[in-house]
Hints:
By secondary structure, the chain is mostly helical. The longest helix is centred in the middle third of the chain and has 26 residues. The protein starts with 9 loop residues before the first helix and ends with a helix.
Amino acid sequence: VVAVEQRAELEARQAAAIQLRGTVRRWWAPVGDSAGRGYGDADKAAVRSGLLEGVRSNAGVQAIRAQLVETFKLVASHDFPGDWPGLVEQLLAGLRSDDMQQTYCSLILVRRLFKQLESRPTSRRDELLALNAAVLPVLKALAPALAGTAAHPGPHRLEGVEMIKVIFKCFYSAFHTGVCPHVQQDIRDWMQLLLATADSLSMAPGQPEQEAVTVAKCRKWVFHIFFRLCARHGNARRCVNGGEAFAEAWS
Length: 251
């Protein structure tokens, strides 16, 4: 509660967020001699509910937000999707928000879900496929506006660059082990977006260091995506479980 209480001192909130992460790590799903001594169902539900609001209410306080995002990752690794109903719908509502910070917070939480599922073998990809189906259309619709913000000088340019980078990281996770139908059907749109973003995010001489680093990291993910598609999914000899048709079309 202290971690998300805006009236509390910043140092107290940060300490509480660190303590919460440690407690969740130890007691969310204890094993061995500690099994059965962790969080009860009611407490877990309260923590899950509070985490989303906590991340959003601390959008501008990176030190606290980072701790809460790590706690979210720990909880999601145990509870998503089966024991966290409605999570994706809540995050989608945040992605559609007119508030840029709220959208960013939802993006980084969605990214944690994609990262959690990206390396699942093709025989265990149902949860990733469901996430792709729900989230990728929203990310594809959101990306052009963010790319436009990132491409032009202005007070929100770095925020736009960071957010489009997170979208690209989600997209990378979506096809990491296999190019699902939800990626295949929109591959042309994604490729156009990637190429246009890489072209618009030029590395200008004399660019401030922070801006140059942020832009370089975003461009790096564009190249990660193209390399993965070409080296793994565009090579019929490396494809698995029916990916040969995509490889032939891609090449």
